[in-house]
Amino acid sequence: MAVNSFREDEYMENTDKKKILSRLLSYLLDYKLAIAGVLVCMGITVGISLVNPLLIEEAIDHYIAQSDFKGLIALGIFALALNVLFIILVKVRMYSMSVISNKILLKIRQDLYEHIQTLSFSFFDSRPTGKILARIIGDVNSLKDVLTNMVTTLIPEFITVIGVVVIMMIKDWRLALASLSTIPIMIAGIFLVQKISHKRWQIYRKKSSNLNAYVHEDIAGMNVVQSFGAEDETKEIFENLTDEHRNAFVDAVIFADMFGPVIDFCWGIGAMMLYLVGIRFLGFEKVSVGLLVAFGSYINMFWNPIMNLSNFYNNLVTNLTAAERIFDILDTEPDITDAKDVEELPEVKGEVTFSHVGFTYDRGTPAETKVLEDVNFVVKPGETIALVGPTGAGKTTIVNLISRFYDIEQGKILIDGYDLTKVSMNSLRRQMGVMTQDNFIFHGTVKDNILYGKLDATNEEVIAAAKAVNAHDFIMKMEKGYDTELKEHGAGLSIGQRQLIAFARTMVSMPKILILDEATSSIDTHTEILVQRGIEALLAGRTSFVIAHRLSTIQNADRIFVIDKGGILEQGSPAELMEKKGAYYKLYMAQFAELG
Ligand SMILES: Nc1ncnc2c1ncn2[C@@H]1O[C@H](COP(=O)(O)OP(=O)(O)OP(=O)(O)O)[C@@H](O)[C@H]1O
């Protein structure tokens, strides 16, 4: 089971929220100019909203008190013009900000995707695909509001609050203090709520990730589920996961929604204090009606942005966990990287040497599995080696190490005398052709799929490769030949046809060293012959390691390595090993005797 399966919550380090926030802010800094424009719009709109109560005070205490209706109408027209400008600027600001935040999301998603491509096999071994998808799609999406609100809420509302406080203090400090007396209660309340809330949102995201992982796995394995009639079991697991997901959401949201009541409470008490102090303690002779009405507006103008800020904060607490999970991946270093002083591996002849190689999976974790111990061999250029042995013996591990998909623990692996760790991975892997049993077919044309082997191959090269592995004829029989669209995973192609396309893909790359994990599934006799010839064409003239299941491949190999008990139990030509009557002989008798 993968370390992080859908049954297990992902492990997350405790991270510094301020650091995450400033990292998010750094993405905004790439759009300084556009954000400056947004801020100018906001400065004007905040200014207009601050002036509005003063206009009301002026209208009541001056124009209405003195029955100056002309002046009142002029003031009204002025206020109307200001507020139309307000609406236009708000629209401009909202549009600009959504463009900026979308660009940032795109950048984060690209960074994430590019980074994931550099990560080593061990990263993918330990994470279900669904959980990786959850971060690239869901978590990135949930940052949209945070990014937008950081500029449109955080800054203007903060300025509004400060502006309101300053104006209130200037106008009447006693009323100001009375109105704002509940601030300490609000701060304490919000602190408490966010502390609990953050933890709960973290749990919610993990549950959401588990659900995603399960749905992805279930859909990918739907044929197995249906063919074994396991729909009820999978439905039950799905329901359990959705229950956990829902409960985690309810737990989190209950607390998140506490922000509003805390603010409402402080707002109400603050307003009560204003009128209590204004009317009861100071009296009408010290406080004019206009001033009291203006303060009534200011108190709303203070608490409204506080409410918005608290909503933003709530949104931040909710979604900061998404940012945490994104940065967690961006900060994951690939286990295998080029050392600083690597050189390019020149074109090799294909000699492969294992010298005292030892390897363990998941070293230093409870899942540690020692697979190879003191493995030694030298394979000459052009040799074909068949790897045989019981399941789980380490055959795939050996071939994965040749491509340096994992780093070894002890010993050295050399290609033409070059230590794998001393040459760039790109120059190494360019000269290797790796064919797994999956024969992964991408969505795209037949030609696109073959071109994965060599992106700049010409049409002639593609056709020559397909002809060499006996794939050309069947491709030409397809509706549009090489331009026929293939579905993801090669749905619509037979297993043998998928293999032939994968052979052509490998052939076009002209690898010096070929690694072939032969498919075990049986195919019809005609395709079997095509596949067999395809394999022969692939093997010709290059060093090859074949995890062999076909008797013919094993018989035609130059040497057979019998892998077991952490290393090579026996090796030699097929005839030598048969004569020796050792492990290979037993395997042969057990598995292939009746076929031979
Ligand atoms: N990614 C991995 N993480 C942890 N352990 C692994 C991993 N891959 C393989 N193993 C373990 O290493 C051992 C060797 O596995 P490997 O796939 O090399 O065997 P194999 O000989 O190729 O088997 P098969 O013939 O079944 O494909 C097994 O015990 C397996 O459980």
Automatic annotation (TrEMBL):
Bilayer topology: Multi-pass membrane protein
A Gene Ontology molecular function term of the record: ATP hydrolysis activity
Pfam families with a match to the protein in the record: ABC_membrane, ABC_tran
Domain of life: Bacteria
Domain ABC transmembrane type-1: 36-318
Segments passing through the bilayer: 27-51, 71-90, 151-170, 176-197, 287-303
ABC transporter domain span: 352-590
Sorted UniProt keywords: ATP-binding, Membrane, Nucleotide-binding, Transmembrane, Transmembrane helix, Transport
Stored InterPro entries: AAA+_ATPase (IPR003593), ABC1_TM_dom (IPR011527), ABC1_TM_sf (IPR036640), ABC_transporter-like_ATP-bd (IPR003439), P-loop_NTPase (IPR027417), Type_1_exporter (IPR039421)
Subcellular location: Cell membrane
Cellular component, GO, one term: plasma membrane
Protein name in the entry: ABC transporter, ATP-binding protein
